Amino acid sequence: MNAYKFLFHERPPAGSAAPAVGKIAQIVDWLNQSFLSTESDGTGGMTPKKMRVPMSPRLGTVGTVEPFRIKEPVLRYVVRACALPVEAGSEASELPREFPVLLVGADSALAKALRYALEQQGYSVRQLIPGTTTYRLDPQRVVVDLSAPAPVRAWRRLESAHAPIGALINLMGADYWADGGHVGKPVEGHGPIPPTRHLHDARALFLLLQVVEDDLMASAVHGGGRLLIVTRLDGRFGLARSRELDACSAGTLGVAKSAAREWPAVTVRCVDAAPDIMPEALAPRLLAELQGRGDAIEIGLTTEGRWNVDLHHEAAPRQTPIGLRLEPKAVLLVTGGAYGITAEIACALAAKYQPTLVLVGRSALPDEEDEMTRDIPAGKALQQVVLRQLRAMNPRVPVSQVMATTRNIIKERRIRANLAIMRGSGAQVEYHAIDVRDRTAFGELIDGIYRRYDRIDGVLHGAGVVNDRLIRDKTLRSFNTVFDTKVLPALLLAQKLQPKSLKFIAFFSSLAGRFGDVGQCDYSAANEVLNKLADSLSYSWPHVHALTINWGPWDADMVDDGLRRLYAARTIQPITLADGKRRFLSELERGASGEPELVITSSMRQIASLQARR
């Protein structure tokens, strides 16, 4: 469960500035006031108080906390945009003028207006314009290839003679709308084609942040260190459900929110401006956000005022209203394979609906297990058998290879068992070993399903990988693998699915998408794209139940005893498999609500408290 290790990172060193945390502190206050009186929804009892435990992530400091003695409920939160009072503007904190401001994005009307506003206030502005090659237009403007590390580093060396950058303003997610661009038109019989103009913005921002981190940190000591990300979804981060969205531009939001967690001294602000605000009117409002020092990371701007993003707890009804029904033999496409959380959900779908399940995974379908290990239970006994087998071939076999082989045996057992459970429940099951990043192979599979069954009733997109590294240490290859595994198949699904026969499309996201995460700028970026794609499809396909669930940690196959002890030490209650499956089926049966972005987790009070402390 690397996706949740952000819960255990230490606080920043003493003296470093506290990062912006949005409304999280208010969530803590609300939960402290209401948690004990909240009526149980049947998933468990209440916990009376938070245990006092050390904050160190080292297992040696955890002590003898008994894991999960007190069961907490799994709660549901709806992500909404809330209007800020007029007086709730950010407290002004002027950016020192000795540090230049870097504007990133096309030389659009908005870029020109913002540059003029900055220069009128005495700031030195340098402009970086994305291109396919790198060359200088004039002393202040340079075109840079942002697709690879080498040209980005070359640009930074050219700029090394100047003072450290005091602020980076990213307009890559805003330039298209600013100059009157529009999203793709629908294709006959299909939904809207998700625009891909901004598909690579998150990657470009990641590469830039790698080379300007030291600058922002240095200028932060003197009052600088600002990172401002601008998108133009709808002025409410896509939560107004009023238009088709350029969801790919939201990837920069995930990168920025993760940067805020890694760089507590840097002030990070994500601003989503409504497309109908003219550049000349928007520029001074963006400058005000750049100079603000408020707590909120996410601020929306519309002609009506300012907005922020908040979580609203909604108690589950004692009996879920049936807004969506699936008939037996409904055709369901599931990405994420036959192992892990997605497979557990597929087992639940099989048991309830007896559908036709088309499973897609990276792993090849395993053969029968070797008879030498077939009857050996998981644990030390299995490890010893594997060790003897491998030593027979290589007496100096490393321990890591033994552990990896053992894990693979256990994983293949789980795959066989899951497929047997699904079929035993009455489902018809297909399994396809496909890399979902392969547009041709995955696209042919989708087309083939329509040819064979003439329909796809529902889609669960749970495929995803993580590879945790700080921004400064992460490689481009790693970023692309994590980001593309979630985003590319989601975009292809939105293009190829036929909404006329589709009943639901569900994306599996995580708390990393909602809050950002240390070491997971790529994963957070990918999940934010999925969140906004669900918002967009909810608008474009109103009769389809489009939803994205930002899950809290699960107590599933990938959680070992060490991580369980860490959770227990912080009274973080992972979602049990039974609770998680029940919650998903409940959300599915609700049907379309017009509010597709959800957070489902237990222990939100504790998680929010850990977030707020940073």
From TrEMBL:
Biological processes, Gene Ontology terms: fatty acid biosynthetic process
Record-linked SUPFAM superfamilies: NAD(P)-binding Rossmann-fold domains (SSF51735)
GO MF terms, alphabetically ordered: fatty acid synthase activity
InterPro entries: KR_dom, NAD(P)-bd_dom_sf, PKS_KR, PKS_NRPS_Biosynth_Enz
Ketoreductase domain location: 330-557
Pfam families: KR
Assigned keywords, A-Z: Phosphopantetheine, Phosphoprotein
PANTHER family (alphabetical): FATTY ACID SYNTHASE (PTHR43775), SI:DKEY-61P9.11 (PTHR43775:SF37)
Protein name: NAD(P)-dependent dehydrogenase, short-chain alcohol dehydrogenase family
